[in-house]
């Protein structure tokens, strides 16, 4: 990662997009050398014993001999039959103990994974053909992607602003102009390394990466120089107000909804995978923005969603408590629940 750190010494002279591309290239190169795909040691299953492991090793050696045309498939097939019969015997013996040791209260995750394996829900399936609007079946990956792309683009087109949406937009613009930030404000000061470290702690290893190919597993394995390089990039983006192009792009993945026909484009739910490095920058900005809005009381005190120490059930409790005493006071209460158009 020496090259990744050295090119940031004169970071202000180059483009932010170019600098981030070079940083991504250095991280991906280091990841290919140091992070191994998969595990070198095979994980032993639940229904294994030393005898079964020996038979599997013998079959692997016999398979190599067959590939080199040194022997026929007779020994290989006989070993496969022995492995199958032994594994079936082990499953029959260990199944009662496995069910007996399951605790529905503590091991609920294990129970659900076991049920999915038994029903075949966890088994990966081949992608099914999708029928387009013209009635033509898309079978290849490229054709399926084109059909889903057209469907998602049509369903997610931004509609024209309604009257309420326009009023809300004008109110937001007026509020933005009324705010004056001095140099000592938290929204105008430079980022500090502690903010970066706090946002970095929330990286999860089991999260997929975005279009740049950088995953949280790679970020958690970064050295001090590579982390410093990423912090300088985020600080430069904060100071200049420019965002790298890679952070504005997303990789779209379609998942089939449960119980829906696989040949219909409307049966798929799109999931956008954005840059993991961009998510770290978002957490830093969100933390400052939330503190600034709470400090200046810009959030309505009745709002409970997306706030610390508050939740949506607080509104339900407040509503039920107010309605509890209304019959005794001989009063009425009206509640209107609606969604503002244009804010979807």
TrEMBL record:
PANTHER family according to UniProt: REVERSE TRANSCRIPTASES
Which superkingdom is the protein from? Eukaryota
Q: Give the InterPro entries listed for this entry.
A: RT_dom (IPR000477)
Tell me the protein's name: Reverse transcriptase domain-containing protein
What Pfam families does the record point to?
Answer: RVT_1
What species was this sequence derived from?
Lymnaea stagnalis
Residues forming the Reverse transcriptase domain are 260-325
């Amino acid at each position: 990662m020496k090259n990744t750190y050295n090119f940031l010494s004169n970071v202000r002279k180059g483009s932010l997009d170019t600098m981030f591309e070079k940083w991504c290239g250095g991280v991906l190169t280091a990841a290919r050398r140091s992070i191994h795909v998969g595990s070198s040691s095979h994980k032993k299953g639940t229904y294994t014993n030393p005898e079964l492991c020996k038979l599997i090793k013998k079959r692997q050696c016999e398979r190599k001999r067959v590939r080199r045309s040194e022997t026929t498939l007779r020994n290989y097939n006989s070993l496969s039959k022995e492995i199958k019969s032994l594994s079936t015997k082990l499953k029959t013996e260990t199944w009662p103990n496995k069910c007996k040791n399951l605790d529905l209260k503590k091991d609920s995750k294990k129970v659900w994974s076991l049920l999915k394996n038994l029903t075949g829900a966890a088994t990966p399936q081949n992608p099914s053909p999708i029928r387009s609007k013209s009635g033509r079946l898309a079978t290849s990956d490229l054709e399926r992607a084109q059909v889903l792309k057209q469907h998602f683009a049509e369903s997610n087109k931004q509609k024209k602003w309604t009257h309420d949406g326009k009023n809300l937009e004008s109110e937001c613009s007026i509020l933005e102009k009324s705010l004056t930030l001095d140099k000592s404000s938290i929204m105008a000061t430079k980022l500090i390394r502690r903010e970066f470290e706090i946002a970095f702690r929330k990286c999860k290893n089991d999260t997929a990466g975005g279009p740049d190919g950088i995953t949280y597993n790679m970020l958690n394995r970064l050295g001090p120089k590579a982390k410093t390089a990423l912090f300088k990039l985020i600080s430069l983006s904060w100071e200049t107000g420019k965002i790298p192009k890679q952070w504005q792009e997303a990789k779209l993945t379609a998942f089939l909804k449960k119980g829906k026909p696989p040949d219909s484009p409307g049966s798929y739910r799109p999931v956008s995978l954005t840059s993991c490095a961009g998510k770290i920058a978002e957490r830093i900005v969100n933390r400052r923005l939330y503190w600034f809005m709470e400090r200046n009381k810009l959030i309505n005190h009745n709002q409970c969603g997306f706030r610390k120490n508050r939740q949506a059930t607080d509104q339900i409790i407040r509503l039920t408590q107010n309605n509890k005493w209304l019959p005794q006071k001989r009063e009425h209460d009206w509640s209107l629940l609606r969604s503002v158009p244009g804010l979807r």
